[in-house]
Fold:
Amino acid sequence: MFRTSTLIAVIAICLAVIANVNAAPPACASSIGGSQFTLQPDYCAWYYIQGLSTPRQVYVASNNDVLVAEAGKISVLFDLDNNGVINATSEKATLATQSGLNHAVTVNGGYIYASSSTTVYRWPYTAGNRTNLGTGEVVITGIPGPGHKTRTLEFDASGALFVSVGSGANLDPDSSRARVVKCDLNLSAIPSNGYSYTLCTVWADGTRNEVGLRHDPSGRLWGVENGMDDLSRPDLDTDAHINNPCEEVNIFANAGFYGYPYCFSEGFLSNSTQGAMSQWGVKAANDTWCKNTANVIKPVYCMQSHTAPLDLNFWSSTTFQPPYNKGLFVAQHGSWNRQPPSGYQVVHIKLDDSGNPINGSLTKFIGGNTGSSSVGGSWGFRPVGLAKLGACGEGVSECLLVSSDADNSIIAIRYSPGGGSTTITPSTTSSTSSTSSTSSTSSTSSTSTTGKPTTSSTSTSTTGQPTTTSTTTAQPTTTTTTTTAQPTTTTSAQPTTTTAQPTTTTTLSTTTGKPSSATMIIPTIFSVILAVIVAVMLI
Structure:
C-alpha cells in the first residue's frame, strides 16, 4: 500500500510539473488593428481581449481584476486560467450599467466611480466582486455639456476628486468650459440628488480638453491636452495648423491659467525662431499678453500636434528594460484631419531625477507602421487607456495594458527578449505640436469680461490686455490651444522628439518567444519519472 500510494503521489507531482513546463506565455501577435505594427525590440504584444464595446479607460483592482469603461457600462475582466488572454464569455462580467457612461472609471474608498458628460456616479465595490452592483448613486450633477463629452476622474491622496471638462467647441469665446476642477466634497454624506458641479472649484483654467489626468508619485497632478484645430497665423507659417499647436504635457498648479482660448503653444512655426512651447496669441494682437508668464503657464513638454493624447501612466517596472522601466507612457489616439496623420501610438518620455520630462526624449514604443517614430501615422488600433497589470499569463509577472475604441480591444505588452521576429528601422525626429483629434469644430468670436484678452478681430480691451474681438471687452476670444503648468524649454526653434532607441517594425511571429525550453525539458522530466518509479518499486 505504501508503495502504491507513494507511486501515485510521485506521478501526480511529476505530471503537474510537466503541465507547468508546457504552459507558456501568450503568443506574440503578428497583426493588431488589422495590420502589422511597430514595437520596440525585445517586447511582445498580444490581444488581451477583443469584442468589447468602445473601451476607454482601464483600471486594475488590487486583486488584479481589470475594470473597463465601455459604452454605457463598466465591465470586469478576470483571467481565471492564467493564460494571459480573457475569454469574453467566461472571464468577463458586467458590474454596472448607466446610460451615457463614456470614458472614465476609477476606484476610491470602496466605490467604483464613472461618469457621463453631465453626471458622476458611483457603486459600492470590493476587489473580486464580479456581480452586478445595481443602481448607481449620483455624486455630482450639472457638469456642462455638450461639446467635448468625456469627463476624466482622478482622486488625490486626501480623497478630493478632480474632474476634467473639455471645451464646448473647437474655439470657445472664453475658458469657462475648458477647465480641471477640484471637488473637495463630503463623500460620506452625499445628498439624495448628488452635489452640484458649481460646488467644485477651478484648479486649472484654460485647458482646452485635458483628457488624461494622473498624479505622479510625489502627488503633483499632470495632464495631457488636446489642442485646437484649424489654427491660422499666416504671419508665422503659411499652414500653421499642420504642426501647431503642440499637444501639451502639463503639471497643474492651483488656480493657474494655461492659455486657452487666447494663446497656443508652438509646435513648429516656419517663421519663428523662439522654439517649441513658445507662447503665441491665436490672434497676433495677443502675442505680448500670451508671452507674459504672469498671464499664462507654459507646458512642461510639447508633443506632435493633433496626436490626441488621451491618457498618461507613470511607469515603474521590474521587467521592462531601460529606458522603459520607468518614465511616462502617453496614449496618442491619433489625428482626424491632419495630413499626413499623426499619433496612433503609445510613446515614452524620459523623466529626470526630479520627475520632470527630459526635453527631446520622446520615443515611439508601439504604433502603426506609417509615419516617423515621433509623429506617428494611421493605424486601425487607436490607443486610449493605459494601465499596469500584474500576472499577465504564465511566467509573465507584469505587462502594460492599452485599450482601443477603434477595434474594441485591449492589448497587453510584455518584455520578451528574443520574442517575435523584428526588423529594426531607424527612428526620426520631428517637431512636436498640439492637437485636437476628437470632436469639436466651430470657432467663435464673442466677448468676455474676465480681464483676459479676447480672440477674434483686432481691438484692444479696456483693461490694457490684448483682445481679438471687435468689442471693448477685457478678455480675448480665440482659435486656440491650451498651455500648461511649469514650463520646460527646448534649445531649437522646432520641438524634437528624438527617440531614445530605434523603433522596430514588427512582423511578429506567433511563437511565444520561449517555447523551445519547455520542449527540451520534457524528455528530461520523463526520465526523472521513470527513475522515481524504479526507485519506489525497489523500496
Remarks:
- The chain has one domain: 25-443+479-513.
